[in-house]
Design goal:
Blueprint (H helix, E strand, L loop, with lengths): L6 H7 L36 E10 L2 E17 L2 E12 L1 H4 L4 E10 L5 E10 L2 E10 L6 E8 L3 E8 L7 H8 L13 E7 L2 E17 L3 E11 L11 E7 L6 E7 L4 E10 L8 E4 L2
Antiparallel strand pairs: 1-2, 1-14, 2-3, 3-4, 4-5, 5-6, 6-7, 7-8, 9-10, 10-11, 11-12, 11-15, 12-13, 13-14
């Protein structure tokens, strides 16, 4: 995989718990996956939402929290279009910085109506590796494309065009789009293709829904969840031989509350630590940890 990632950045990417399936039909109204109404009043979220996740790593005698990530959502006008603005920031803890320092800064702008992606930026430091993305989406029918300025400490700076379909998202936009999935229309045990773009390429993987489960989350409590598996891309971090497991809150918020991903060395996991500004009651939290 051409995306060079540490296990923390890989864990952050895993916050996109349910990507999207292959395009169906010719219009955007198919939404690539079964979703609920994408009118702003019907979305699973709204401006003012703040989520914080804790990242954990296990390998041999190492069994500790190694970083955290936050997801913040507000509203802005983007070229006159009412838009959501998502800021995602993640980093390793001060102690783990001594071994491998990671800083992840992702930002995404997508329309309030139908969640159409408009712009994406990435500013990443993983040890000595640096990566930067600046995407502008051009929705021009058959000529639609992403104008991307990308930089990495391995390849230098490049200006490229990335193919753009109605089912192509950046990761933060995809995170919020997928939270509107209509669980009642997703069949358990069926592989659903999914796509995302980052750096200078587009990646296809798939997810499977397993069913409902009560999950006990450290620091949060017992949560009614819907359990998924996502097929991981083999490369510098993931093995490609095992699936990542993800648990999503079984309520109207569709929050990722826990995930676990096998890496080439050890296992990364992440858990929802705190939340504010949810649009809907966190009704799936049935026993809060005190």
């Amino acid at each position: 995989m051409r995306v060079a990632m540490s296990f923390l950045s890989a864990a952050f990417l895993s916050l996109v718990p349910i990507f999207l399936s292959a395009q169906e039909g010719n219009g955007r109204e198919t939404f690539c996956i079964p979703v609920k109404n994408l009118h702003p009043d019907s979305l699973a979220f709204d401006e003012g939402e703040h989520l914080r996740f804790t990242m954990h790593y296990v390998w041999g005698t190492i069994n500790s929290d190694v970083g955290w990530a936050t997801v913040n959502l507000d509203r802005q006008s983007f070229n006159g279009i009412p838009a959501f603005h998502c800021k995602v920031y993640g980093q390793t803890t001060r102690i783990f910085d001594l071994f491998f320092k990671v800083r992840e800064d992702f930002q995404s702008w997508f329309s309030c109506d139908s969640l159409v992606p408009l712009r994406f930026t990435r500013n990443t430091q993983e040890g000595r590796y640096i990566a930067k993305n600046d995407y502008i989406y051009y929705w021009e029918g058959k000529d639609s494309h992403i104008k991307a300025n990308v930089y990495s400490s391995k390849k230098g700076e490049r200006s490229i065009e990335i193919p753009l379909t109605k089912c192509t998202f950046d990761l933060p936009a995809l995170f919020f789009f997928a939270r509107n999935m209509d669980f009642s229309k997703v069949r358990p045990g069926i592989r659903y293709p999914m796509t995302f773009s980052i750096d200078d390429d587009v990646y296809d993987v798939y997810f499977i829904m397993y069913g409902r489960e009560i999950k006990d989350i450290k620091g949060l409590g017992k949560v009614r969840t819907v359990k998924f598996a996502a097929k991981l891309l083999a490369g510098g971090v993931f093995t490609g031989e095992e699936d990542m497991m993800i648990w999503i809150s079984d309520d109207d918020n569709r929050l990722p509350v826990y995930f676990e991903a096998p890496l080439l060395v050890g296992t990364a996991s992440g858990r929802l630590e705190s939340y504010t500004g949810l649009k809907h009651p966190f009704s799936s939290l049935i026993m809060e940890r005190k």
